[in-house]
């Protein structure tokens, strides 16, 4: 009897501990798996926001060029006089400049009736120039819309020569419609730029039926020959692993999917491309390497399992030793059992508040309780970290610049590096003069466009190692690693002049001119963190504000 009772107690305790640990292990693996999914979702959202930002940048750039060309006085004169020869020569010269600077692939001018006047196209596989007087309204619905509604149009298109995006803008002279100008840029050029700016693998997937319907036969064949891959249903342009093609199912590609290739794991994100009529003609694909996320997940799961195995092994050994000691405690256990059978639970009170263990059984009870609390605290900490990770975001949704939260992470890291390596570090604090007046006059949505316009100007001036942060409202901070005060002043002055010379143009033709004021300072030995440098630069900004604005003070 004694042996059976001891074995039964040992078996029940061992089973209870094993099941508890298995439950905790399952919970831990579940939490780690959710954390992995959270990281993948964050990466997907980042890719989506990045692609949206890049495409919006292309749209704004192309639309701005269309506005400038539509307001070119010489174009208006030549179009009004129907001087096709000189207009073609003039547009051809403009095309060379825009092609080199912005990778423009097409400029097309039509008169107010929709008749083609001049067309200049560089379709990657050849060049096309003509002055044919064909009416194109039957197949150019975008131009028809621009001429009929007398408003700009932006759309994706497939024409006889290229696949890309177009910005069409009406040409007017004193509110009299003369025609319209269409600027086009191929998706091949856009994909190449996206790859360069995002540092990711980006590719273009186009459906063959859409291409064959519009492209000329020789152009389609050249496009097909120079593509990365061609199947029965689609053509792919860009850098892509051939093994990816095995999972494609013609046009039923999902929003995203994950693929494992040997030791690597990749996320494929797809974003549909629709033409002016809303018909999907293909997709833009972005490939992200998830290997680091999955490696962390597997290593964490293995480590957690290993720790749980070690803990379980230790407890079973301890219980085995307690089994031998229980032989001398059998009378006490029998007495306790008899009292429980008689429902005399008052005897349990002596075990209620065990603080100083008198034997191994009490010690085991305390360890189990203590272990439960420790595991609960550990899981609570993990949940807190997951919540904190969800809240962290370093990108300003409006402008695409870093936000103020990033300052404590990135800014202090740059500060520490400058201190450690004894290299100069300067800061520019700037804001828009009379920004409230812009919001009050034109509305907050126009104020947002001004902020985005300013950020784009700044990004085109500063280098890739420089850090642009939206500090709050219309105020921005630029950290310049390696730049002394003189260099920082020159950069700030360059930004100030560029802003003054680059007014923002609204779709209705309204031109908004604005200026900025800036304060500059550089790191000194007594600075304890990046904030002290920013405070001094901010004080110089207010000096600039108080002494007339539209200036830089160091």
Low-confidence stretches: 364-380
**Domain tally:** 4
| Record field, number of beta strands | 19
Instruction: Tell me the name of the CATH homologous superfamily of the largest domain.
Output: Reverse transcriptase/Diguanylate cyclase domain
Gyration radius, to the nearest Å? 34 Å
Number of helix segments?
15
CATH class of the largest domain: Alpha Beta
- Estimate the mean pLDDT confidence: 80
CATH fold annotation of the largest domain: Alpha-Beta Plaits
Q: Name the strands of the widest sheet in spatial order.
A: 3-2-1-6-5-4
What structural class results from the helix and strand content? alpha+beta
Straight-line N-to-C gap: 92 Å
The helix content is: 40-55%
Major sheet, described briefly?
6 strands, antiparallel
* Spatial shape: flat
Kindly describe this structure.
The protein is an alpha+beta fold. The chain has helices spanning 2-70, 73-80, 84-102, 141-149, 187-198, 208-214, 217-225, 291-325, 330-341, 360-391, 404-421, 435-442, 444-461, 485-501, 530-546, and strands at 106-111, 116-122, 127-130, 153-158, 163-173, 176-186, 201-207, 229-230, 234-238, 256-261, 264-274, 280-289, 425-432, 467-472, 475-481, 504-505, 511-512, 516-522, 552-553. The protein folds into four domains: 2-36 and 311-391; 71-188, PAS domain (Beta-Lactamase, 2-Layer Sandwich); 200-289, no CATH class; 404-553, Alpha-Beta Plaits. It contains 15 helices and 19 strands. α1 (2-70) runs antiparallel to α8 and α13 packs across α14. The chain is flat and about 115 Å long. It starts with a helix and ends with a strand.
């Amino acid at each position: 009897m004694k042996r059976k009772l001891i074995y039964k107690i040992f078996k029940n305790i061992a089973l209870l501990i094993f099941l508890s640990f298995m439950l905790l292990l399952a919970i831990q693996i579940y939490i780690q798996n959710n954390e992995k999914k959270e990281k993948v979702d964050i990466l997907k959202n980042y890719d989506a926001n990045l692609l949206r930002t890049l495409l919006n940048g292309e749209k704004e750039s192309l639309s701005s060029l269309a506005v400038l060309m539509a307001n070119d006085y010489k174009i208006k004169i030549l179009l009004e006089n129907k001087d096709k020869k000189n207009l073609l020569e003039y547009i051809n010269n403009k095309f060379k400049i825009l092609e080199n600077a912005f990778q423009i692939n097409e400029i097309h001018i039509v008169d107010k009736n929709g008749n083609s006047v001049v067309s200049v196209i560089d379709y990657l596989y050849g060049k096309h120039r003509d002055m044919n007087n064909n009416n194109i309204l039957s197949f150019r619905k975008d131009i028809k819309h621009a001429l009929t509604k007398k408003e700009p149009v932006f759309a994706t298109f497939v024409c006889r020569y290229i696949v890309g995006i177009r910005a069409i803008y009406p040409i007017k002279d004193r509110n009299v419609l003369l025609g319209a100008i269409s600027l086009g840029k191929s998706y091949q050029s856009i994909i190449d730029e996206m790859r360069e700016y995002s540092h990711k693998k980006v590719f273009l997937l186009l459906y063959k039926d859409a291409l064959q319907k519009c492209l000329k036969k020789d152009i389609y064949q050249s496009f097909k020959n120079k593509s990365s891959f061609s199947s029965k249903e689609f053509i792919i342009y860009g850098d892509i692993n051939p093994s990816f093609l095995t999972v494609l199912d013609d046009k039923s590609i999902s929003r995203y999917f994950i693929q494992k290739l040997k030791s690597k794991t990749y996320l494929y994100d797809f974003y549909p491309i629709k033409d002016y009529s809303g018909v999907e003609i293909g997709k833009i694909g972005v490939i992200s390497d998830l290997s680091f996320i999955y490696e962390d997940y597997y290593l964490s799961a293995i480590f957690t399992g290993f720790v749980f195995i070690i803990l379980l092994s230790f407890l079973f050994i301890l219980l085995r030793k307690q089994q031998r000691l229980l032989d001398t405690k059998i009378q006490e256990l029998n007495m306790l059992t008899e009292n429980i059978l008689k429902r005399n639970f008052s005897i349990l009170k002596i075990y209620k508040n065990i603080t100083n263990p008198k034997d191994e059984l009490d010690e085991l009870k305390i360890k189990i309780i203590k272990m439960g609390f420790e595991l609960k605290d550990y899981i609570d900490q993990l949940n807190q970290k997951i919540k904190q990770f969800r809240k962290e975001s370093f990108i300003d949704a409006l402008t695409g610049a870093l936000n103020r939260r990033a300052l404590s992470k990135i800014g202090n890291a740059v500060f520490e590096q400058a201190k450690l390596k004894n290299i100069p570090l300067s800061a520019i604090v700037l804001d828009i003069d009379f920004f409230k007046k812009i919001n009050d006059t034109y509305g907050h949505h126009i104020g947002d466009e001004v902020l985005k316009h300013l950020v784009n100007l700044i990004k085109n001036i500063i280098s890739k190692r420089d850090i642009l942060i939206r500090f709050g409202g219309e105020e921005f901070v630029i950290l310049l690693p390696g730049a002394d005060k003189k260099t920082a002043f020159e950069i700030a002055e360059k930004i100030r002049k560029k802003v003054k010379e680059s007014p923002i143009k609204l779709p209705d033709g309204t031109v908004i001119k604005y200026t900025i004021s800036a304060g500059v300072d550089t790191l000194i030995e007594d600075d304890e963190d990046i904030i002290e440098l920013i405070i001094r630069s901010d004080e110089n900004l207010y000096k600039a504000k108080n002494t007339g604005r539209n200036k830089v003070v160091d």
